[in-house]
Amino acid sequence: MINKLVSKIKKTNAPIVVGLDPMLNYLPKHLLDKAVAEQGESLEAVSEAVWQYNKAIVDATYDLIPAVKPQIAMYEQFGIPGLIAYKKTVDYCKEKDLVIIGDIKRGDIGSTSAAYATAHLGKIKVGNTEIAPFNEDFATVNPYLGSDGINPFIDVCKAENKGIFVLVKTSNPSSGEFQDRIIDGKPLYEHVGEQVAKWGEDHMGDDYSYVGAVVGATYPEIGKVLRKVMPKTYILVPGYGAQGGKGADLVHYFNEDGLGAIVNSSRGIIAAYKQEKYASYGEANFADASRAAVKDMIEDISNAISSR
Questions:
Q1: Residues 252 and 217 sit within 8 Å (Cβ to Cβ)
Q2: pTM above 0.85?
Q3: pLDDT tens, 195-208?
Q4: Catalytic residue, candidates 105, 123, 186, 232
C-alpha cells in the first residue's frame, strides 16, 4: 500500500492528505436541519449529516488528492451511528480510489493489539467468509507500550499489504513533556524514530517502508533531524494550517526526491467555508470552498519544495 500512496502522490503532485474530522459545529446548518427533520434530534440524524458532509467534500476534492485521514474519535463521539458514518466514509473513499489513513492512535499489547489491528487493517473469518471490518489502508499507532504493541500491527500489515504510521513527535504543545526528555544523550523522540526505522526494515515497499512515522508540522527543526534518522520512512505531518504549520516550514520533512512526507490538513480544508478567505463561497457551497483550500495548500507546499 505504500507503493500505491507514493504513486498517487506522484500522479496528483499533491503530497497532502485531507483530514475528515467532522465536528458538530462544522456541519452546515442545511445538512443538519434536513437530517433532524427526517430523523429527529438524534445521533442518527447527526450521523447522516456527517456522512453527507463528508461525501460532498470527497466528491469535490478526490481528483486532486491521494489520500484522506478520518479521525475515528470525531465519529465515536456520536456513538454507534457515528461509527456507521465512519465506515460509510471509508467505503466511499475506497470507491474513489483514495488511500485511507485511519487515524485511530491505538496502542496496547498482545491479543488486544492484534484485535485492533484486525479491526482496522485485517480480516475476520466467519465460517468460510473473510470480512474486513473497517478496512483502512493505514492506521496510526501509539508506540508507548513498545514492540509488544507494534508487532501485531506489523504482522497484519504484512499479511494484508497495508501499513502504519507510528507516533514519533506529535504537534501538540505539551508533547515535549515526555517526547523531548533526554535519555542516553538523545531526546526520546529520536529513540522512537530509530526504532521505527528498524521496524520498517522488515516491511519495505519499492522505496519506502510500510512503517511510517507521525511528526508534527509545528516542530520543523525536529522534523529535519528525524528525516535523517528515518530516511526510508514516510512521514505523516499533522499541524498544517489551523495549528500554524506552513509549507515553508515543511521542506525538511521531504527527501531530495520530493517524496517521503504527506502533510495533513483537517479543519483548514473541511471547514474552509468558515474562513474569511473562502467566505465568498457561502455555507451552501462548503464543498467548493474545501476544493479551493486544497488547491491553495497544494500550491503552498509544492512551491516550498521546489524553491528549497
A1: no
A2: yes
A3: 999 999 989 999 99
A4: 105
